[in-house]
Amino acid sequence: MQQDFSYAPGGAVAEAANDPAGLPLVVSIFADRVQLRDLIAEDAASVGLRIGQSGSVADLLAGDACALGDVVLLDCPDAKGATLAALTRLDMRVAKSGARLVVSTSLASLDAVFGCLDQSKAHLLVDPRRGERVIALGSLLAGLPGKRVRELAEEDRLMLLRLTEQVGQIAERLEQLDQRGLSASGGAFRFESPGTDYRAEGDGTAGLVRSKKPPLPDPRLVRQIIRQRRMRDIFFDAELFADPAWDMLLDLTAARVEHVRVSVSSLCIAAAVPPTTALRWINQMVEAGLFERVEDDTDRRRVFIGLSDHAANAMAAYFAALEEKRAAA
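== Winged helix DNA-binding protein ==
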């Protein structure tokens, strides 16, 4: 059954999405699948966007560069050489123009596509359904200053509210971490206790010496914890325990001790939530300074995700505190 994504009651034409001058916002659409391109154009028009450029991914590399408009929607499920070249170019152009970029891809191509997007703060979708594209578009437009979007139908409005609530939960958790104490570098964790950060040796006349930081835990212990967390899904609904940030922190902690690099797609799997949701969390954790992008020295097109030094110190301190409590008990 085809879903109805009309954005005005009864299908009537409603107010378009305009810029501060009252002009309709322009969207460019690039997709190799003509049927999908037409579908995206229909959804974009339904929220009042004016269709600008529309063509295949190869059109991004053909001829002279044209104005992209306010929003760019790109579908690239296959990470071929020409497609990645077009995506890299588009990423730079969007970053310079101030436009907004939404890219949909497949899980198989996620790592290659992610590696091409490091400037535009693109919104990434993995094997999205039509509704997910509409939500991404609505969320993106809602974030544009001075932009207005048509009134959403009740069902679609609830879908957008669920997305907003999800993002709000991320912000709330990060805010709670921030309230517990910031490090000197401004990270989301306080990694060292201000009372025991330095100690004096001997009678106190010696110079101050920084206290020794605890090491990261045995990766076998961390992997065991991860397996135990996944076992809950056998007996209960997995959504009851969805905690992608912690699952990814555990996975990256073990990988750091094992000296193993973690790809974006692998980390999405470790998050135990849909890939698009995992990507939103990864972006939040990168912005919070807990994760960092790590380029592959042998292949600039590949990007891995690792713990920042601050996050590694926090995880080491956490497991050390657990061990102290266990020993005390």
